[in-house]
Structures are given as structure tokens and as C-alpha cells.
Amino acid sequence: MSRYRGPRLRLCRRLGDLPGLTRKTSKKQTPPGQHGNKNKKPSEYAVRLEEKQKLKFNYGISEKQLSRYVKTAKKVQGSTGYVLLQLLEMRLDNTIFRLGMAPTIPAARQLVNHGHVFINNKTVSIASYQCKPGDTITIKQQESSRNLVTKFLMFPGLANVPSHLELDSNTLVGKVNGIIEREWVALQLNELLVVEYYSRK
């Protein structure tokens, strides 16, 4: 997968707060670039594109993956935008991040890729794995794995664990009790604009 490896704070200055991408905050308030200070009114396309970019960079997915998630969300009954957010929030890497076991989504993805995470007592090394209600997430019994996650839990990326998740910080066991509700999504965006962006393509 083609991951974004560029400056993260530059993205945050352009798109706003991206809690899944970085915990740092920029001292500069203006958008990046020579023309960052100009108050030019963005076009309708630019507004939709910006919302789509927020999703893409916050969850660390490629254009192809996001397009696939939108197609899947359209097939499910209900609000396409809400279903899209549910699909992205229930990814394994994001679930680990929301439990506080990793400071950012890229850090959570690294934990998964390196085999530190078990789902229902089976090793899962695919970050895009869709967590389901009833799943139990545990950390490898190896001391180095547990020390790493314990260190991350002392300084979680977000203050609160969402209502659909449950964490026992002593045993490092997380449980998925349901599907995330809209108000618990940490990213500030209008998901309907993302759906509109893809419906015009």
C-alpha cells in the first residue's frame, strides 16, 4: 500500500485536526504554501475534495481503498456516509488506536503488521481487518510487546475510549461490544460531501 510519508503537520494545517495521523500541533495557523494567507472562497469541488482527503489521510488508506469502501457502503441499507465511517472506524488498526494501545493509526498499523496483536486468540497481521461485535483483542504474551503497549497506554492519542469498545488495561484485553455511533467519531468532517464527491465521478 502506498503510505503517506511526507510532513504530517503540513497536512494538518491544510485539512484541520487529524487525530489518527499525528498528535503534534502546528504553531502556524495559516494553510501551507506561498498563498496560504489568501482568503479565496473554495469551489464546491474543492470543499468535497478536502473532506475526502481528511478521511484518506486520517485513516491512512489509499485512494483505491477509499473508493472500494464507498462502493461497499452504497450497497448497505442506511445512510451511505454513516456506513462508510463505520467501515473505517471498525478497521483493526483504528480500533487499536481508539483503545489507546497506540498513539496514532500508523503506530497501530505497525503493531498489527509485526504480529503483536491477536483477535480471538488468533494472530491477525492485516490492518484492514474488519472488527465485529464480540471480537476480543489481546496483545502477544511476549514481554517486549506488552511493555510497548503499556507505555502507549500511559499517553493515549485520544482521551476517551468510545462506548462500543471496552479495555482492561491490567490484562491488555480489548473487547468490541458493538458498532460505533456517529458522535464518537473523532474526526471533524461532513461525510455526505465525501459521498457526493464519489457520486460525481
UniProtKB/TrEMBL annotation:
Any GO molecular function: rRNA binding
GO cellular component: chloroplast; small ribosomal subunit
Compartments reported by the entry: Plastid, Chloroplast
Domain RNA-binding S4: 90-154
InterPro entries, per the entry: Ribosomal_uS4, Ribosomal_uS4_bac-type, Ribosomal_uS4_CS, Ribosomal_uS4_N, S4_RNA-bd, S4_RNA-bd_sf
One Pfam family it belongs to: Ribosomal_S4
Keyword terms, alphabetized: Chloroplast, Plastid, Ribonucleoprotein, Ribosomal protein, RNA-binding, rRNA-binding
Keyword presence, Membrane: no
CDD domains linked: S4
A biological process from GO: translation
Region ranges (Disordered): 15-44
Main location: plastid
Matching SUPFAM superfamilies: Alpha-L RNA-binding motif
Superkingdom to which the source organism belongs: Eukaryota
The Small ribosomal subunit protein uS4 N-terminal domain, residue ranges: 3-89
Cited NCBIfam families: PRK05327.1, rpsD_bact
Assembly, per entry: Part of the 30S ribosomal subunit. Contacts protein S5. The interaction surface between S4 and S5 is involved in control of translational fidelity.
Family: Belongs to the universal ribosomal protein uS4 family.
Task performed by this protein: One of the primary rRNA binding proteins, it binds directly to 16S rRNA where it nucleates assembly of the body of the 30S subunit.
Identification of the protein by name: Small ribosomal subunit protein uS4c
Lineage: Eukaryota, Rhodophyta, Florideophyceae, Nemaliophycidae, Nemaliales
